[in-house]
Design a protein that fits this description.
- This protein has a domain of about 100 residues: Jelly Rolls (Sandwich), CATH 2.60.120.
- The protein is about 40% helix and about 25% strand.
- It is built from two helices and nine strands; from the N terminus they run ααβββββββββ.
- The strands form two sheets. Strands 2, 3, 5, 6 and 8 form a five-stranded antiparallel beta sheet that branches.
- Strand 5 and strand 6 form a beta hairpin.
- The protein is elongated and about 190 Å long.
């Protein structure tokens, strides 16, 4: 019985194997990959690249517009500087003409003064006719009158106001940096202004004498260091004086042009 079961088992094993081979899962060949996904990714990448290029182009256009605006602003600034330089040149030419006219007036005054010195001031007195003297007493003699002596007024040592005293601690006051006097033009040394406000006290004085009124001129400009655009202080012909308020702080120097008279200048800092 056991022997028959073994034989039957050997007979059934090949059939079971064949059935298993037949009914088992069959390996399917891999399907070829579709090209649609690759094409979609390529299209998406191209769209992103095009968007990036468009954004870069727009940024370049914006940058070019900013550069053009900056160039326009620079051109306007250069134009303003040229206009200011022309105005300064025109003022300098007018100043030169005024100085030349003053020089001619001075020569004319000197010539007239020399001619007046050569001519006699008073004509020679005509001798009085001789009068016969008598022994009669002289009456009605007019009293002798002495002409009063007219003193020439002396010029003050300074036409500028005195320097103010310092105020209480913690308060702002005017501090005088220097005072200058002269007859001709000059350029001052560089000086430092600490406060936001400073001023130039100036006075111009004609020479004494008849016919010399308004024959002197004083022109002052305050220049910042390393700059050609000044702050105008004064431009006066004839005797006058005033105080000109300017803006600080910074380093400045004064260009003083004068002719025909005497001048005095003081610089004060408010801090």
């Amino acid at each position: 019985m056991r022997f028959a079961f073994i034989i039957a088992l050997f007979l059934l094993l090949p059939r079971v194997a064949m059935t298993a081979d037949t009914n088992g899962p069959t390996a399917t060949a891999p399907k070829p990959s579709s090209g649609k996904s690759s094409a979609g990714k390529a299209a998406q990448t191209a769209a992103q690249l095009q968007a990036a290029l468009d954004q870069l182009t727009k940024s370049n256009h914006d940058l070019l517009d900013l550069l053009k605006q900056q160039q326009t602003v620079l051109q306007d600034m250069q134009y303003d500087r040229r206009q200011q330089s022309r105005q300064i040149q025109s003022l300098e030419e007018r100043l030169s003409d005024a100085l030349q006219k003053n020089a001619l007036l001075e020569k004319k005054v000197a010539t007239l003064s020399a001619e007046a010195a050569v001519r006699p001031v008073n004509p020679a007195p005509t001798p009085a006719p001789e009068v016969a003297t008598t022994n009669a007493p002289v009456t009605n003699i007019a009293p002798r009158v002495t002409a009063p002596v007219v003193e020439t007024p002396k010029q003050p040592e300074s036409y500028l106001p005195p320097e103010g005293s310092d105020g209480p601690p913690g308060t702002k006051t005017w501090h005088r940096l220097f005072t200058l006097k002269g007859l001709d033009g000059r350029k001052t040394d560089l000086f430092a202004i600490q406060g936001k406000t400073w001023r130039v006290l100036w006075h111009n004085q004609d020479p004494t004498g008849k016919g010399l009124k308004n024959t002197s001129g004083l022109f002052i400009n305050a220049f910042p260091r390393d700059d050609t655009v000044p702050q105008r202080v004064c431009g006066k012909v004839g005797t006058a004086g005033d105080a000109t308020i300017l803006e600080g702080p910074g380093n400045y120097y004064l260009q003083i042009d004068a002719s025909g008279g005497s001048w005095e200048v003081a610089v004060e800092d408010f801090h």
